[in-house]
Design a protein that fits this description.
The complex is a heterodimer of chains A (about 170) and B (about 800).
Chain A (H helix, E strand, L loop, with lengths): L18 E4 L5 E5 L2 E9 L10 E4 L5 E5 L7 H14 L3 E12 L2 E8 L2 E8 L5 E2 L5 E4 L5 E4 L7 H8 L4
Parallel strand pairs in A: 6-11
Antiparallel strand pairs in A: 1-2, 2-3, 3-4, 4-5, 6-7, 7-8, 9-10, 10-11
Chain B lengths: L7 H7 L20 H15 L7 H10 L7 E7 L5 E8 L3 E8 L8 E8 L5 E6 L3 E7 L8 E6 L3 H15 L9 H16 L7 H12 L3 H18 L1 H19 L4 H54 L2 H6 L2 H43 L1 H8 L2 H36 L3 H6 L3 H53 L10 H42 L21 E8 L8 E8 L4 E5 L6 H8 L7 E6 L2 E2 L5 H5 L2 E4 L8 E2 H5 L8 H10 L3 H6 L7 E2 L8 H15 L3 E5 L7 H15 L3 E5 L11 E6 L2 E6 L1 H6 L4 H16 L2
Parallel strand pairs in B: 10-17, 10-18, 13-16, 16-17
Antiparallel strand pairs in B: 1-2, 2-3, 3-4, 5-6, 6-7, 8-9, 8-11, 11-12, 14-15, 18-19
Helix pairs in contact in B: 2-5, 6-16, 7-9, 7-11, 8-9, 8-16, 9-11, 11-12, 11-16, 13-15, 15-16, 20-22, 22-23
The chains are: A mainly beta (about 170), B alpha+beta (about 800).
The complex binds adenosine-5'-diphosphate and magnesium ion.
């Protein structure tokens, strides 16, 4: 682990990175005193720096480790961490927009995602949010997130439908 | 206003997954959901989510056979697989086991095949939920840190339904049995929930909204019909003058210039026409007056009725409803939305009828006058309509963009103006100015786009109208003059009338664009109003509600669980018995659920499972209003209404006499500071009134509670934000107030609770310790002991 450049901010020591492994169910384990404990990964910056500053939390939400940069881990740990991270950061990914319908105060989006066909509802005046990487993110009424990774390379029909809602 | 994109990432994270908060149905409800409601929920699931609306029959049959005929207790859909692709895995809670049914896409001949797994319920000792950005992973565990019995992944949409199953499993692991019986109702409600809380109305399309609105016209149908009749008569009369012009030209002027008519005759006929015109114009304006008068008044009355019904209905709704809905939005529904409905009835309906009648009338008149010219004029009209509609759609899409830009711009305002002190303290004025300027420019860009479309479309429409005029001329000219060997077939008068009628076409066409927008807006307003009217109260009186006279104040909780939303349980099994006259101190870290407990005592919410009894009666069986009248609450941040201090003190008891009000204020240690105000008890407080400090408002609310004389008193951090001197005064007031009542007092400073007969120590939704101060201090390493020591140390460190 890199040593922190000395700054004026008091350094509350973060625990050192442990050995990591993943089981068949996709659950992540960290080893503490050679004993595996199940951990969940919480990215500090899931949007702006998704693969940096990953906090590992045990069952009681205590921090087991804070990993600044997974690339400094060994291969096994990195693979395990990336798999767990993919799950923690999961959002639906929109490939094409089939239709956008208005239903009074709501708007129904019917989309084709990497994960399969899906319909979801948003408030009529809720717009997609533009992220720093140029992608758009929509949040439906139930809290699910739908990402349009490259709004500019959508097919013509989707682009036409989306036009009224993008910035 | 909406989120702004520069902080987009921050906003997505800070707006936690919107809790599917709402009327949480009791998991172990005794009565299944009624059929219309179930159908409504299922309709929402079909329309909005395209996901199965219930457990597939084949699966149900199979499971019931396995469970000796017992139906599933609960079920939910796990819609993501291990690779985070969409899938259809049903998680079904049976009486003794959990079934996991994974649909295999290659089902034999169209029938669904499921790969089944069964897990005995008692094997699940622990449930671990890990929420991600848009999905939750749940592990069912026998032992912590051992491989899981099952790992289930699902999108947030399924959280409500899944949460109930996990909750039952968790409760079971802690030794409490819950027996849910309405699996279908619960699943449908949980999935449809987020849509229903945003759009509560059962009215599903525009036409039915209009129909419902028409229902409100019923009491005033005579005036309404009179108004419509006047509008129709007005239109018919408007069509007459050009006809008379034709008569004037063809029957008088032309014959006269040809010498076919004597001067005297001509004058007589001319004056006659003028007289008719006078009558026409007079009666036309009378009809206009009649129409405006009757329809505006009917509109006002309907708006009044709606406002009254709406406000009445708001009062039947529970606290939960008001915390889910923004105050501003509720206020605008009662005020501006009903006003738009007035607009619609007073003007929209009439204008619509008028324009339609005018167009039809024109068509008929023109065809009768001269069908060939008539057709030239009428046939292109539908094309113009289509063009106007097309233009409306296009503009609407641009309006969406402008609206988006606009809200981003105003977001900067509503962000920085209240926070101006921070902006200045960190010297970020330039930064904020630049941010505003960028967004301001963005508004301009879109607005320019609108004007482009707008300005390029209207000339097209007017040009089209001109082309029609030219066509009419072109067709009319040969017939007007005749050719070398045919006589003229069109009279001057008819042609002249035509030109006049042509001018009348433009009005209704222009109106049309404006009217569609207005009507759409009014229909949305009506829908928003109906939405609230259709919201069912969550807390209702039982059919044969009891009144306890008097309430003695014996309050018992038995295994009470509660969550504000179906996902997160806040109270995880609370049990206690409190005798009348006891004073109970509730202590514990913030977020432990203390306020939630007292919310349940006041029955602002109903428990999800377990029972709450008052004097041995189920709280749900008591008459709500009567019971609440016996409860007094003093909160940390008490609310004073706009009005005098006297009115505020007498709020629960408007007829209390002045002596009692003063006595109550005296007992609350409020009398002295009230008299320091120049208007004394008549000082107006609340919004736009005199500003009182937190401690003063607290003492007024204590006076209110003393006067109200409740049997059960709830003090929720009534002294937490005041200085020591004020606290002492409030403490004295409270001491006088608690005598002879059942009291629940929540306080952070343990010293405040020195008079409590017992203390309940809460942590993470459970009561972890119960007893008297001295007893609790004897518990080594107890939560209370630690709190106590901590506060003593703090006190010694910072004591003044
Ligand atoms: N109206 C509400 N909707 C959703 N969650 C709530 C609501 N009120 C309180 N909570 C949550 O319930 C938990 C317990 O809150 P509360 O009973 O107010 O705690 P305490 O009074 O002990 O500080 C907290 O985590 C809080 O976030
Ligand atoms: Mg509280």
């Amino acid at each position: 682990m890199k040593t922190r450049i000395q700054t004026h901010i008091p350094d509350v020591a973060a625990p050192a990175p442990p050995r990591l492994a993943i089981d068949d169910n996709g659950r992540l384990y960290a080893y503490r005193d050679e004993k595996p404990i199940h951990v969940a990964v919480r990215p500090c910056f899931p949007w702006s720096a998704a693969r940096r500053f990953l906090s590992l939390r045990d069952m009681d939400f205590n921090e087991v480790a804070l990993i600044e940069d997974p690339d400094e881990l060994n291969d096994e740990a990195r693979h395990a961490l990336d798999a767990a991270l993919a799950e923690a950061r999961f959002t639906f990914s929109i490939r094409a927009i089939r239709a956008i319908e208005r239903d009074f105060e709501l708007r129904i989006w019917r989309v084709d995602t990497e994960e399969g066909l899906r319909s979801f509802a948003m408030q009529w005046d809720d717009f997609p949010e533009k992220m720093s990487d140029g992608s758009l993110v929509l949040k439906d009424l139930g809290g699910d997130l739908y990402r349009i990774p490259e709004p500019d390379s959508l097919d013509r029909n989707s682009a036409r439908l989306l036009w009224a809602f993008r910035g | 206003m909406r989120a702004a994109s520069r902080y987009a990432a921050g906003i997505l994270l800070s707006r936690l997954p919107a809790p599917a908060a709402s009327a949480q149905r009791r998991i172990d409800t005794a009565t299944p959901m009624n059929a219309p409601k179930l159908q409504q929920n299922r309709g929402i699931i079909r329309r909005f989510f395209e996901q199965p609306e219930c457990l597939p029959d084949s699966l149900r049959t199979r499971l019931e056979a396995r469970w000796a005929g017992e139906p599933p207790q609960l079920y939910a859909l796990a819609d993501l697989d291990g690779g985070l692709r969409q899938t259809e895995m049903w998680v079904v809670l049976g009486p003794r086991e959990i079934a996991l049914a994974n649909r295999e896409s290659s089902g034999a001949e169209g029938g669904s095949e499921y790969a089944m797994r069964y897990i005995p319920r008692e094997a699940v000792r622990k449930v671990r939920e890990e929420p991600g950005l848009s999905s939750t992973t749940v592990s069912l565990l026998a032992e912590p840190d051992q491989p899981a019995l099952a790992v289930i992944r699902f999108s947030f949409r399924q959280r409500g339904a899944m949460g109930a199953i996990l909750f039952v499993l968790q409760q079971q692991a802690e030794g409490r049995d819950i027996h849910p019986t309405d699996a279908d109702g619960f699943y449908a409600e949980a999935v449809a929930e987020p849509v229903k809380t945003r759009q509560g109305s059962v009215t599903r399309d525009k036409l039915s909204v209009v129909w419902r609105l028409v229902g409100y016209l019923a009491p005033y149908r005579a005036s309404f019909l009179l108004g419509l009749f006047a509008a129709a008569a007005f239109t018919a009369i408007t069509l007459a003058p050009p006809m008379l012009t034709r008569n004037l030209i063809d029957d008088i002027i032309t014959p006269y210039t040809r010498g076919d008519l004597a001067l005297e005759e001509a004058y007589r006929a001319g004056w006659m026409i003028l007289a008719i015109l006078v009558v026409i114009y007079l009666s036309r304006e009378i009809f206009l007056w009649l129409r405006l008068r009757s329809l505006t008044v009917v509109g006002e009355k309907v708006a009044r009725d709606l406002r009254r019904t709406l406000y009445d209905h708001l009062h039947t709704l529970s606290v939960g409803f008001f915390s889910r809905n923004q105050t501003g939005s509720l206020i605008s529904r009662v005020s501006s939305d009903t006003d738009r409905i007035w607009d619609f009835i007073a003007f929209g309906v009439a204008e619509l009828v008028l324009s339609a009648l005018m167009l039809c009338g024109l068509a008929v008149v023109l065809l009768v006058l001269d069908w060939r010219l008539g057709l030239v004029l009428i046939l292109p009209v539908p094309l113009i309509f289509i063009f106007i509609i097309y233009m409306g759609r296009k503009l609407h899409r641009i309006f969406m963009r402008v609206w988006h830009r606009w809200s981003e711009m105003t977001a900067v305002l509503s962000d920085t103006i209240p926070g101006i002190r921070v902006v200045q303290a960190f010297n970020q004025g330039d930064h904020e100015r630049a941010r505003f300027s960028r967004r301001n420019e963005a508004v301009l860009d879109e607005a320019v786009l609108i004007s482009k479309v707008w300005t390029s479309h209207w000339p097209v429409i007017f040009f089209a109208l001109n082309v029609i005029t030219l066509l009419v001329w072109a067709f009319a000219l040969p017939r007007l003059l005749g050719t070398a060997d045919t006589a003229p077939t069109l009279t001057t008068g008819t042609f002249f009338a035509f030109l006049l009628y042509m001018g009348m076409f433009v009005g209704p066409l222009e109106q049309f664009g404006f009217l569609t927008r207005m009507i759409n807006r009014s229909i949305s307003s009506a829908h928003r109003v109906f939405e609230i009217l259709d919201t069912e109260p969550e807390i209702v009186n039982a059919p044969d509600a009891k009144r306890l006279e008097p309430v003695e104040g014996r309050i018992s909780f038995k295994d009470v669980t509660f969550g504000y939303d179906p996902v997160r349980q806040i109270l995880k099994g609370i049990s206690f018995d409190v005798e009348p006259g006891e004073m109970i101190g509730l202590v514990g870290p913030s977020g432990a659920g203390k306020t939630t407990v007292v919310n349940l005592i006041a029955r602002f919410f109903d428990a999800n499972s377990g029972t709450i009894t008052v004097d041995g009666h189920d709280i749900a069986s008591l008459d709500l209003g009567h019971y609440r009248a016996q409860i007094g609450m003093v909160m940390q941040d008490p609310y004073l209404f706009h009005g005098s201090i006297l009115e505020n003190i007498r709020y629960g008891k408007h007829d209390a006499d002045l002596g009692d009000a003063v006595a109550a204020a005296r007992a609350a240690n409020a009398h002295d500071f009230i008299l320091k105000l120049s208007s004394g008890y008549d000082t107006v407080v609340g919004e736009r009134g005199h500003t009182l400090s937190g401690g003063e408002r607290q003492r007024i609310s204590i006076a209110r509670a003393i006067l109200h004389n409740p049997r059960v008193l709830i003090l929720d951090e009534a002294t937490s934000s005041v200085d020591t001197e004020t606290e002492r005064k409030i403490q004295e007031a409270i001491d006088r107030l608690v005598a002879g009542r059942t009291v629940f007092a929540i306080a952070h400073r343990l010293s405040t609770l020195s008079r409590a007969s017992r203390l309940f120590v809460m942590k993470d939704g459970l009561i972890v310790e119960k007893g008297k101060h001295e007893e609790l201090l004897k518990v080594p390493d107890g939560v209370y002991t630690r709190l106590h020591n901590m506060q003593r140390e703090l006190h010694e460190m910072y004591a003044v």
